[in-house]
Amino acid sequence: IMCASAKYNTRGPALIPRMKTKHRIYYITLFSIVLLGLIATGMFQFWPHSIESSSDWTVEKRSIHDVPVVKLPADSPIPERGDLSCRMHTCFDVYRCGFNPKNKIKVYIYSLKKYVDEYGTLVSNTISREYNELLTAISDSEFYTDDVNRACLFVPSIDVLNQNALRIKETAQALAQLSRWDRGTNHLLFNMLPGGPPDYNTALDVPRDRALLAGGGFSTWTYRQGYDVSIPVYSPLSGEVDLPERGPGPRRYFILSSQMALHPEYRLELEALQAENGESVLILDKCTNLSDGVPAVRKRCYKNQVFDYPQVLQESTFCIVLRGARLGQAVLSDVLQAGCVPVIIADSYILPFSEVLDWKRASVVIPEEKMPEMYSILQSIPQRQIEEMQRQARWFWEAYFRSMKAIALATLQIINDRIYPYAAISYEEWNDPPAVKWSSVNNPLFLPLIPPQSQGFTAVVLTYDRVESLFRVITEVSKVPSLSKLLVVWNNQNKNPPEDSLWPKIRVPLKVVRTAENKLSNRFFPYDEIETEAVLAIDDDIIMLTSDELQFGYEVWREFPDRLVGYPGRLHLWDHEMNKWKYESEWTNEVSMVLTGAAFYHKYFNYLYTYKMPGDIKNWVDAHMNCEDIAMNFLVANVTGKSVIKVTPRKKFKCPECTAIDGLSLDQTHMVERSECINKFASVFGTMPLKVVEHRADPVLYKDDFPEKLKSFPNIGSL
Amino acid sequence: MQTRKKYIFLTFLASWLLLFFFGGDQLRRFAPFSGRKAEARRNWPRWTDRSLLKSFAEPEELQRDEDPSLLSPRERRAAWLSAYSSSSCRMETCFDFSRCEKHGFKVFTYPQERGQPVSETYGKILSSIERSRYHTLDPEEACLFILSIDTLDRDHLSGRYVRNVDEKIRGFPLWNGGRNHLIFNLYSGTWPSYTGELGFDIGQAILAKASFSTDSFRPGFDISIPLFSKDHPQRGGDKGWLFQDSVPPKKKYLLVFKGKRYLTGIGSGTRNALHHIHNGKDIISLTTCKHGKDWEKHKDTRCDKDNVDYERFDYQELLHNSTFCIVPRGRRLGSFRFLEALQAACIPVLLSDGWELPFAEAIDWGRAAVVGSERLLLQQQTQFLWDAYFSSVDKIVHTTLEIIKDRLSPPRSRSRFLWNTLPGGLLVLPDFSTHLGDFPFYYLQHGYSPSKKFTAFIRAASQAGSLSQPILRLIQAVSGSQYCAQIVVLWSCEKAPPPSGKWPQSTVPLTIIQGRRKLSERFFPFEAIQTDAVLSLDEDTSLSTSEVDFAFSVWRSFPERIVGFPTQSHFWDPEQGRWGYTSKWTNELSIILTAAAFYHRYYHSLFTEYLPAGLRELVDGLAACEDILMNVLVAAVTKLPPIKVSQRKQHKEAAAQQAECGEGAAGTPLPGAPSPSAPHGARVKGTAGSRRFSQRQDCLNQLADWFGYMPLVSSQLRLDPVLFKDQVSILRKKYPSLEKA
Q1: Chain A closest CA to B369's CA: distance in Å?
Q2: Tell me: the pLDDT tens digits for B189-208?
Q3: Closest chain A residue to B735 measured between Cα atoms?
Q4: Which helix (H) or strand (E) holds B373?
Q5: What is the spatial distance between Cα A366 and Cα B341, in angstroms, rounded to a whole number?
Q6: CA dihedral sign, ordered A350, A353, A357, A359
Q7: Cα-flanking dihedrals φ and ψ of residue B77, to 5°?
Q8: Do residue A8 and residue B23 have CB atoms under 8 angstroms apart?
Q9: CB-based contact A696 B721, cutoff 8 Å
């Protein structure tokens, strides 16, 4: 554009005198474009937040060498040492977090400074690569705020990841002079290597008053449960080495130890273990005679054999993670990455993220005293469980260990869960690997309850205009002892339901609901009128079910309240020729669905159908005016993982297919449509949730040689 | 005119150019408009030289942080022992693991001393421990010790306060500074501060205490227990109040509280605040000032009105009809409101800062106690927790013991998932397996499925030295099933089993176990049983291959239940005031005879390891009760009825009652009544029959007494093949032989 304008600029004056009408239009257009451009540019330039972003745009180009230097006077205040009795309700100011519609804490990061003491000597390295990655991750996350007044949590940019790389007193002074320090309230420090020689404290020695500590290597004595967060010691190898996930199955070694610097006493014990169990135990040590240029950290040796580290970890089922001077060890991260099950031997160590992660699923913790028994303890773990632990270990690494970003976000999420406990992430979300999340079900009606019979059920009849047949259904259903209410869903907008006086007189309340649209999903709407748990969905032409059959169906539902309990059963089959699912209504030995033309189910599924049906299934059903029952079968099976229960023998039903069977070719199209539904739903659900079973429920004495009058449900199976 | 135009034009162009020079930066950034938002918020700079930054620690430093001059592990442990004792005890410093190695987890209770009565509640706790399978009478083999001194109430103003405890315990030779001791406490401290003060030095003993504050709680060492009243039942316990899953949990009230309001002193702040939320409609918060003798002295302006309101609402009614219940701290951190709310399926809303929640080491309270979106799930969770861990003193005490036991061997302990999922940690034995797929309860949650094969387990007790016809036929039929992996015969006779050549040749491996002629032995977790499913059989059971096949296909749908053929049922006999039992044909069933039943092999372990030895001895002493016990056990675990599947007419051979070896070694009784026309509850004819019948009835009542309630659940249905007796060609049916008379 610039070149173009420059061109006009030179040629413009010459053209103006010869301007004609068409040129005038041309110029007016040009003018307005230029004018618009001006306004736009001006707006961008002087818009308030654009000024703000312009400043950080320039900040971005900065080098770490340019950050401002802060001089700490020798007598500047030092925070208190840190209060071991701090808990969220005593040392944390939750009111800063306030009510937040998104239930997300707001995290502010102090800008980077270089701290020097009175003599101008640096207090610590300005910032490490990992801490920079961590702060970048926080600032990119949805927890971040740049408004210090709205922040609930403050993260200093003073890098305390490694205690050995800083001067304790001066770092503490630097913390104390932060603008919002306020005794460290709501401040979060990240530390991975705490303590130093000779006593190696298990928490950061820098006095920090009330600040929260996300520390690697806490012991039960320094960890303030529910206040501090235990984090892993990051292994920079994670970023350098790519270890592809290895499938489960036997590995070359059973137990492997890869740590280079073990206390001689531990090493003796491990060597004894190796001597006892031979080849399956491999105890590696540092290499003594490596040629120059080979990084010692990437090699391990056993006698004269040289192994690549961390690749060798993938060759073993279990990998030992022994405490060193510190409790937290970076090797844990390498071991998890290799999908090797960590055997953690570090008494009183608080495992990383132990507040939310179930380490028993991914690791074996062995008390130091029991080290000699390690082999037999590990041998007693079932193979299937080992495979799961391997997968779980790898998943923990991928989700919570692999990068500083993963570590930072998990830490913030844990704190977030404490502040908004009602929006906390569930155990399953933290712990289940994606594959398990997919294949597992969490039944919303998991408590084994047999609802009281006295409550009865509500019959919901969907009808359009078949009044005569409807009235017969009402009369029949009203004979069922446990019926407590009858609800007619009048799906015809063009016709009024019959007058009150015309309806059959029955012993239970009868309610008519008029719908706004003729939609099939109206049948599954959670009407307020349904007060019982049990719902009987019944078509307005199902008059052939006896009172005994319906009452028995209700009794069966009470024993299986989380399932669809229905009369006509159907089956889905895999069509090998067409390579897709097929719908089957023949007399089969199996069932996987029941038709909702006559079925009992829990009222909760009405909510699920109406509000939680995945994808566009609900609209699809309404548009096609078909398959609402198949959709319901999919929904219930998917959420409970259980099969339907078909009750009582097969009878001649007046149902879509049945009429179709009588009425010739209708059959074909109907079956094709139903098959199409199954394929559509299976693709939306991403799986085939329906379960095939070979049984149906009958009364205990059905067809037994026993006087009919003594049977509870004698009239069953009559055609 | 034209010149002016020209100048305007030029000015425009000039300013346009100027803007480009100074504002170009923005323009460049706005060009890709999509990237704008993310960048506007970014604050932490992308340093130009970030790639040059050093790592926080050199790889060398990370991989070898060991300092050679460091204490050896043994020295370090010794140092810990001195540094971290008493107030900062941990298992590794204050607990002697070696005591538990030889004999396993055994608990010893000090003998009661004369003239030293204990409170009713402490008596219950002691008897719970004595009823537990871990109890021992020999202090030498004990791993854990329980004092006979009542330490429940340590409020020295209370009448139950036992004086001079320090002196007494120092006199115990086993005390050893409190090592491996477990001390129970419900009330500690007194007016006005109600601290955790116990009035004696517990030393290195583990403290199981109600109202534990996080300050004094020694994590991983102490155990927080719930506050329960002296009326809390010893065993069994009341059921939860949730009988149905109503959706939405439409209850009259959203949130309720009814309790004392302290006018002064500790805890008054929390409860004083509660009246603000009372709206008289769906949020009911009632307080009374009436407590203590001199409440009127402190009474404020609200007291009178509050006291009137307080009387207007019935507490039980409120609990029943509310979705959430406030559980504020009392003088102490825990209050009775907690257990009350759990039982009532009222989701507890906790207002008690610094309270270490009961059994928090095992229970994930976030799933039951906090306001969540899925109220229905939370309500069910409260009921599960109530029933699994809190409904009786037995459960509270046993949960405490199991938590300690789990610490002894971390690799053989329960994961948090197990504690927080049905049927709960007490019923899941980590000694059986630590893999979830080995239990019958978690198939769905973890996407496992039960094994596709079963083990036929036949108990043979016939006196004849040779093999009888029925057992040969049975082996034939069972081995014909495509799902049969192996046959195991438990030879429960004095005579040695026939040599292997005498056994029928079958396609599946056959193992013979020489039994010890105890009835309970048939449910011993034999190593030989390798499949999830066990088909339990008596030697005289008659089954066809297709019956077995069909029943197995049903079992795979209900792997946590007993699935079988002949059934019996129990009923409450109001005239005699006891449970009745009938083997007649009835419309209901609650017991499946283990003479022909599928169940999960885990129930063998539960039967042998979980039930106390006393119950198995009871069963061994009776003629025929072991199958009732098995049914009661499975029902207590699942809370569900067993499942009956269709069978052909004659289940047992006509000559089923053949001579059995030895007195009292009989298998299960005759299933089904010979005459179907006999009415419900009729007496069985014949003396042998009636003795057995009355023994079974007695047994049923003793079991109900031991469990504290009747676990059996009745069912009205039977599962048949889909086309059973339907009017279709027999050729279309998968199990036609089931219909033959």
Answers
A1: 9
A2: 777 777 777 888 888 999 99
A3: A589
A4: none
A5: 39
A6: negative
A7: -60, -40
A8: no
A9: yes
Asked whether B203 and B166 are in contact (CB, 8 A), the reply is no
More confident residue, B170 or B419: B419
d(CA A286, CA A296): 7
Mean pLDDT of A650-675: 62
Residue from A275, A283, A345 nearest A312 by CA: A283
What is the Cα gyration radius of chain B? 34
The per-residue pLDDT for A2 is 41
| First and final C-alpha spacing in chain A | 86
Which helix (H) or strand (E) segment is A213 a member of? strand A212-215
- pTM of the predicted model as reported, rounded to 2 decimal places: 0.84
Give tens-digit pLDDT for B18-33: 655 555 555 444 444 4
Terminal Cα-to-Cα distance of chain B (whole angstroms): 117
Give the type of residue at B581: Y
Query: Which of A401, A447, A693 would you mutate first to test chain B, the one with the most B CBs within 10 A?
Result: A447
| Number of neighbours of residue A56 by Cβ within 10 angstroms | 18
Cβ(A521)–Cβ(A622) below 8 Å:
yes
Cβ contacts of B269 on chain A, cutoff 8 Å:
none
Q: How far apart are CA A372 and CA A272, in angstroms?
A: 8
Percent of chain A with pLDDT over 70: 91
Instruction: Choose among B629, B648, B651: nearest CA to B705.
Output: B629
Residue in the structure block whose two tokens are 């119950």: B615
Of B13-17, B149-153, B628-632, give the range with the top mean pLDDT.
Answer: B628-632
Find, among B636, B740, B181, the residue nearest to B395 by Cα. Answer: B636
- ∠ CA B291-B294-B299 to the nearest 5 degrees? 75
Cross-chain residue pair A37–B16, CB shorter than 8 Å = yes
For residue A222, the chain B residue with the least C-alpha distance is: B88
Alpha-carbon distance A41 to B27, whole Å?
Answer: 7
Reduced to 3 states (helix: H, G, I; strand: E, B; else coil), residue A499 is coil
Confidence check: pLDDT of A663 > 80: no
Q: For residue range A534-558, what is the model confidence (pLDDT) as tens digits?
A: 999 999 888 888 999 999 999 999 9
pLDDT, tens only, B498-536 = 887 788 888 899 998 888 878 888 999 999 998 999 999
Domains annotated for chain A, with CATH where assigned, are 69-230 (no CATH), 240-401 (3.40.50.2000), 453-650+665-697 (3.90.550.10)
Joined together, the tokens standing for residue B608 give 């042998």
Contacts of A555 in chain B (CB under 8 A): 716-717
Q: Which of B150, B155, B406, B627 is catalytic?
A: B627
The alpha carbon of residue B252 is apart from the nearest alpha carbon of chain A, in Å, by: 14
What confidence category does residue B303 fall into, taking pLDDT thresholds of 50, 70 and 90?
Answer: confident
Cis bond before residue B248 (omega within 30° of 0):
yes
**Do residues B271 and B260 make contact, with C-beta atoms less than 8 angstroms apart?**
yes
Q: Hey, is the C-beta of B20 within 8 angstroms of any chain A C-beta?
A: yes
Residue B539 near residue B474, CB atoms below 8 Å: yes
- DSSP 3-state of A148: coil
Q: Which residues pair with A302 in a beta bridge?
A: A305
Residue A662 has pLDDT above 50, yes or no: no
* Residue A187: pLDDT over 60: yes
Alpha-carbon gap, residue A356 to A362, rounded angstroms: 13
Which of B571, B566, B520 lies closest to B540 in space, CA to CA? B566
Separation CA A560–CA A553 (nearest Å): 10
Residue numbers in A near B69 (CB within 8 A): 197-198
Task: State whether residue B5 sits within 8 Å of chain A by CB.
Answer: yes
Closest CA to A231 of A351, A344, A343: A351
What Cα–Cα distance (Å) separates residue B349 from each residue in A621, B238, B286, B381? 42, 22, 16, 14
Residues from chain B contacting residue A240 (CB–CB below 8 Å): none
ipTM of model? 0.84
